[in-house]
Here is the input.
Amino acid sequence: MKWGRLWAVMLKELRQMRRDRVTLVMIVGIPVLQLLLFGYAINMNLRGLGAGIADQANSAGSRALVMDMLATGVIRPTLTVDTPQQLMEALRRGEISVGVVVPPDFERRRLDGREAVQVLVDGSDSVVQSAAVQIAQTPLDGSRALVAGTGAREVTPQQIGIVSFYNPERRSAVNIVPGLIGVILTMTMVMFTAIAIVRERERGNMELLIATPVSSGELMIGKVLPYVAIGLVQVTLVLALGSWLFQVPIRGSLADVYVASLLLVVCNLSLGLMLSTLAKSQFQAMQMTMFVFLPSMLLSGFMFPFAGMPQIVQWFAEVLPLTHFLRLVRGIMLRGADIGELWPEVAAMAAFTAVMMTVAILRFRKRLD
Amino acid sequence: MVADAQAIAFSGAAPAIRARGVTKRFGALVAVDHVDLTVPKASVYGFLGPNGSGKSTTIRMLCGLLTPNEGAIEVLGLRIPEQAEALRLRIGYMTQKFSLFEDLTVRENLEFLAAVQGLDRTRAKQRIDELVEAYDFADRQKQLAGTMSGGQKQRLALAGAVIHKPELLFLDEPTSAVDPESRRDFWEKLFDLADAGTTLLVSTHYMDEAERCHRIAILDHGHLVADGSPDELTRALDGRSFEVHASEPRRAQRALVGLDGVLSVAQIGNQLRVLVREGVAADASLAQALRQAGVDADVAASMPNLEDVFVSATHGAKAAMGKGA
Here is the structure.
């Protein structure tokens, strides 16, 4: 490994990057866009969700309850039906986001203190789900107006049950933003490196490079280092926007957040390099990136709670760097944990990097056959 | 091997490249089939052959980018592919397709190559200034390589390939995308390099370029079908090349094509160029065939040229002329 050569490869990468408008735009555009999309979708105070009502009791009390729910403005009635089955169908077809079921024996149940009303919710949208929770706070006996004044009797919370469809766990913006750092890094870092090497092969630069004394290690590491810096720029961007726009707290140390991010960047870059030794064209490299990106997004615990997945899927998810990063970064940012306490995740990511980098350098031959 | 011996005696050194029985297979296809080569130092050695004849594959094996299935290669005294890394410091390689970075400027490309070749900063700067001057890039140093013309790109690629002053330079069809004037300039540069002691191995499918080489080898379907200096190769065809002047050249051509012993009949303007097989008393039989066909034509012996050599070697591979040279 000669520093002069390593530096030459890095400098070349940076100069090429500077002239590649698309990459430059993506470096900044992807984090900003994703953060705004995810962040605002989650944070927005939803109003006017389409709701279906099945009031089978049709008593004075039930009508008052439904009116109270509508009065919050969170839902607006778009459908009135007779049975819960019709509501579920409408929910499945996407006609409504929320369904309110008042059973025929509403009054009896209310007096018995049993669950008297069900709120059905399309949980595939986490915003909708939080709205349902809000609706479920409605007091059953119309005491909403009285609560402050008279200290009316307490409402047992179980009396309005929430049945969430399609998504078992509620997520908040605070939970999403730290995870988003990981998702963005996984997407951009793997893609940039996978493409960077395949592009040189496609354009014919590689034949020249391998005929020179530059070594596989110099070439690989020289290509990766500039992207490490770019990864950290993206992290900074997401953190700054996250705290400015969404008041996401950083309860642990900022340095720990960067160390964790650096680990993920290096993991993904070495993975990208490994993929680039497999891909024959830039298009294939993109496909492989998606092949890694989708399971990372779905199985790492970013979208769905890790604990809810079948054992075998959990084992698979343990291989993904994003899984470990999410545990690290949520621990640090949200629970104020120290990176040292989370050392098993750090070790897992370091091992992943070592394996991928070794495979990449071994697979990359300075030969054409 | 008389010519080899002379060339070696002349340069007073071991050959730059020695290859014996080199074979490369890609699946069922035999791209290069038992090729023997000896390239003397400080000469321009041409590789002539149609597309797909195995020129690029041979060059790639000689610089260690491809591993031969059979045979032994020695380049600059190093065993290839085992010692390919050591060889890379001493050779330059100009690929068939422009392989510098189109999104870097002329100077940035040269800086990158200088650093990769291990030149230190001061030497690199000095050498780049020298090359920029010699290769006429003084006012284009900041131009992106991708925006230059074909001829300029080839010049830049050559400058890049010689930045570390290699002893041996491989050029794979360097002028295939270049206009005639640029080609002439380019060859001037190649001879300058040869004069300075560099050995050059150039593949081409242009006859006029092959004629400029000190020695040429002709490849056809992976076989080496001719090897020698252009002079030797053309002289070996003495008495086999004819010119036919006819008022109706197309008719004359029809009368001669397919005649026993005739290898090729090519129309060049108003005359025909006829090449016959070795040992055929062609003079008389050509004239007779033309008379029988009722075509009014003169037949005259002509000086064989490299095109004849090429046709004879590739069409009549069985005749195997020059193989024993």
